[in-house]
Amino acid sequence: MRYQISGRQIDIGEALQTHVKAELGEVVEKYAQRPTDAVIVFSRSAHEYVCESVIHLSTGLTAQAKGHATEIYAAFESCREKMDKQLRRYKRRIRNHHNTRTAPVEFAEGSSYILAPTEEPEDDTDDLTQPIVIAEMETKIPSVTVGEAVMMLELGGQKMLVFRNEGHGGVNVVYRRDDGNIGWIDPRNSK
């Protein structure tokens, strides 16, 4: 597994890097036999240290965790515990669903845009100006089952995930609702 350990305006010493590789490697190997790479970033937020980690698995899934503490090693331990919990749930869910996926998840390319918010016109005219595109980038859309999409949503700590449904090939969306439940939008079923 490839590690990328860095600090934002913090000097990361060799001892911390060795500790991170040993501890995180142990957790990942315990639950995910085929990790590809891990990105760990340490930063400082006021009086706390923050450790953010992202692990990419060969199945195409990504697990993210974040830990806070007043000591840098404690911040990493908090992050490691959260990652351990996520990977344990992931492995349990795969075992419970008897997932027979042998090939990695396929990804399609898609465009992603970030739009600037529209401002109200200062006078009373109905000026229907278009929002300004401030960022355009490529994104990957996975081709997975609904259960795997929900798992990717939870592992990635995202609020919404667009995916191609393996059942019928249509584009679907899963999202986290305000009440904490997961919503699923399948335009094919709206007929």
Automatic annotation (TrEMBL):
Gene3D superfamilies xref list: Ribosome hibernation promotion factor-like (3.30.160.100), Sigma 54 modulation/S30EA ribosomal protein, C-terminal domain (3.30.505.50)
NCBIfam families membership: yfiA (TIGR00741)
InterPro entries to which the protein is assigned, alphabetical: HPF/YfiA_ribosome-assoc, HPF_long/plastid, RHF-like, RHF/RaiA, Ribosom_S30AE_C, Ribosom_S30AE_C_sf
Subunit structure: Interacts with 100S ribosomes.
Coiled-coil region list: none
Cellular compartments per GO CC: cytosolic small ribosomal subunit
Sigma 54 modulation/S30EA ribosomal protein C-terminal domain sequence ranges: 130-183
GO biological process: negative regulation of translational elongation
Purpose: Required for dimerization of active 70S ribosomes into 100S ribosomes in stationary phase; 100S ribosomes are translationally inactive and sometimes present during exponential growth.
Keywords attached to this entry: Cytoplasm, Translation regulation
GO molecular function terms noted in the UniProt entry: ribosomal small subunit binding
Subcellular location: Cytoplasm
Main localization category: cytoplasm
Pfam (any one): Ribosomal_S30AE
Protein name stated in the entry: Ribosome hibernation promoting factor
Family indicated by similarity: Belongs to the HPF/YfiA ribosome-associated protein family. Long HPF subfamily.
